[in-house]
Design brief:
The chain is mainly α. The chain is 80% helix and 0% strand. It has one domain.
Length: 286
Amino acid sequence: MLVIVGYIVVMVSVFGGYALAGGHLGAMFQPVELLMIGGAALGAFVVGNSGKVIKATLKALPEALKGAKYDKAVYMELMGLLYEVLAKVRKEGLMSIENDVDNPRQSALFAKYPKVLADHHVLEFLTDYLRLMVGGNLNSVELESLMDSEIETHHHEGEIPPRAVQRIADGLPAFGIVAAVMGVVHTMGSVGLPPSELGVLIAKALVGTFLGVLLAYGFVGPLAGVLEQRAQESSKLLQCVKVTLLASLNGYAPALAVEFGRKVLFSTERPSFHELEEHVRQAKAR
């Protein structure tokens, strides 16, 4: 939602300022220029990326237009789930969570945390390493190394869409110049027209440069920044799971292991110690 609000502010500021200065908004409406710039950018995007990158980018774009996906409620649910799982392991042993880990969507334990179930990246990461803890002989050092490798891979995959979008933003000013040059060529080919008509043609050509710069820095570039921020936020969930499970493997009690996980979260979404303690107390009561 903030993305749409920002776009509205950009348009009102630019075009509103132009109108207040006495400019005619009708002169800015140049669909052919938009077709040239947008078509060239789209073609370059297709040429410069593999099918996997194109698919990942198209999938990520709608998410960027929505509100923040990872808020305090998601982190609280994740830590509540981690506490319940680790408390069950501490009380009944690792084998007690085998069915929950193998079939999390049919598990009564996981069903209490729908926000975690809805994120397949976090769900798979959590269940995969719980499964390794149940059936493997990995120590905490080996498990940490494996987790770091997977989180790094996840982070690199998350950076693919914002990098692809940023490359489009970097090319838009140049495509605007291309459109402007084409307009100038058209103007020079019509040099026999009256000065008033030549002025209109020159104005249309200059709009191409304007649109290329505006689209790059007012629309597409900021969108790449939003996608990058979302990728970083998704990695924080995995880091929270990693730190909590490793703390449990090193012998810390469930409540203290979850506190370790709380410390890696961004301060803007991180629940306070007392909020987490109350949440864990409610989970324990259930």
